[in-house]
Amino acid sequence: MRINVTKPYLPNIDKYKSYIDQIYQNEWLTNNGPLAQKLERALEQYLGVKNLLLVTNGTVALNLAYKLLGISGDVITTPFSFVATSSSLMWDGINPIFSDIKANSFNIDPGLIRKKITSKTAAILPVHVFGNPCEVELIQKIADEHNLKVIYDAAHAFGVMYKGKSILEYGDISTLSFHATKLFHTIEGGALIIKDNDLYQKAKRMINFGLDGVNIECLGGNFKMNEFQAAMGLAVLEDIDSILTCRKNLWQFYYDNLQSHYQLQVFSVEASLNYHYFPVVFQAEDDLLKSVNKLNQINIFPRRYFYPSLNKLNFLDKVSQNECPISESLSRRILCLPIYAELESEIQRNIIEVLYG
Ligand SMILES: *Cc1c(COP(=O)(O)O)cnc(C)c1O
Q1: DSSP character string of 42-54
Q2: Which of the listed residues 89, 91, 179 should we mutate to test ligand 1's pocket, taking the one with most ligand atoms within 8 A of CB?
Q3: Ligand 1 atom with minimal separation from the 188 CA
Q4: pLDDT tens string 173-182
C-alpha cells in the first residue's frame, strides 16, 4: 500500500450519514444552510475567534480577502509557501513582491520587509508556515508605520494559539484552508476570520453575489460552502481531539528520533503546536534525493514542501523575480514526512531507519 505525505481523514460513515439525513430533512443544500451556520459557530468556539466566514476553498478565501480590503498594486509576501499564496495574488492582477525568510523559523523575516516597501505596496501577506506563528507584533508595527493591510495565509495554523490567544486573531484578515489533506477538512473548503465587524458583514454579502435579501448591495461573487461540505466538517470536528492526539504522538516520535540527525523547524516559544507537518532539512539536495529514492522503493512518498521557492515560478513578471537565497536554499533541501492520524508506527519506524542512512 502506498504511503503518502498525508491521508484525508474519513470520519465514521454513520456519523457522516446522520448529518446527511439532516440535509434530506431540511431540503436545504446550500446558501448559508443550517449545517454551514452550525459549523461556523462551532469553529468560532473551537478556535476562539469571532467573525469566521466559511467559503468554498482556501484559495478563494485569499482572493476574497484582497477584494474586501481593496488591495491592488504590490503585496509583499513569502517565497516559501504553497503556490496558492502568490498565484492567488497574480490571479487578481496583484504583483507578489517576495521578501526572504528566516532559516530557522521558515517564516518571512520582518527585518527585510521594510526594504521592499514602495509607494505601490498595498499589503503584507505572510504565512504561518507549517503552523509556526510569524513575528506578528513586528509585522503589525511595520504595517502601521506604512499604512499597509496585513493578511495572514493561515492555511497551516488551524487551532494554533499564540500568547494565549488564537493566532487567527492577528492581521486584518486570516484565511484557512479546509482541503481534504489538511488537519481539519470539509473535503474542499476554507474560511476567513475578519477583524472589522462592518467588513465581516460586507463579506457575508460578497460571497453570495452581493445580495442582501433580494437587494443587490455590492459587487459580489459565488464563494458559498454547501451543506455536504459542512456536514463533513461537523463530523470531522467531532473527532478533532483524537486526530490531534494521534498526530502529537507521531510528531513527538519523529522529533525525538530525528532532532540530533537533521535540522528541524524552530517554533516560536509562545506558540502551541498543531502537529500538521513534519519537515526535515538535509545538508544538501543530493542527500534529500537519495533518501526520497530509498523511501519510494518501499512505497513511501514524502513530499518536497515547498519546492521550488515561489520567486522561481516561471510565470512571474520581471518585478517579482528577485533573489531570495535563504528560501531557495531551504526549498532545495526540505522534505515533509508522512504524518496523519492513521499512520502506523511500524511505517514511521521504517521511515526513520531510512533517514538514518
Ligand atoms: C492548502 C493551502 C492553500 C490552498 O487552500 P485550498 O483550500 O486547497 O484552496 C493556500 N495556502 C497554503 C499555505 C496552503 O497550504
Answers
A1: HHHHHHT-SSEEE
A2: 179
A3: 7
A4: 999 999 999 9
CA-CA distances (angstroms) from residue 241 to 92, 236, 331?
A: 37, 10, 32
Beta-sheet pairing, 149-153 with 173-177: parallel
Is omega for the bond preceding 325 within 30 degrees of 0, making it cis?
Answer: no
Q: Give residues with Cβ within 8 angstroms of 241, minimum separation 6.
A: none
**Average pLDDT of the residues of the chain:** 97
Q: Which ligand 1 atom is at minimum distance from the Cα of 57?
A: 7
Helix (H) or strand (E) holding 68: helix 58-68
The answer to whether the CB of 155 is under 6 A from ligand 1 is yes
Quote the ligand 1 centre to 307 CA distance (angstroms): 15
φ and ψ at residue 51, rounded to 5 degrees: 55, 50
Distance, CA of 260 to chain centre: 28
CA 299/CA 301 separation, integer angstroms: 6
* pLDDT of 168 higher than 80: yes
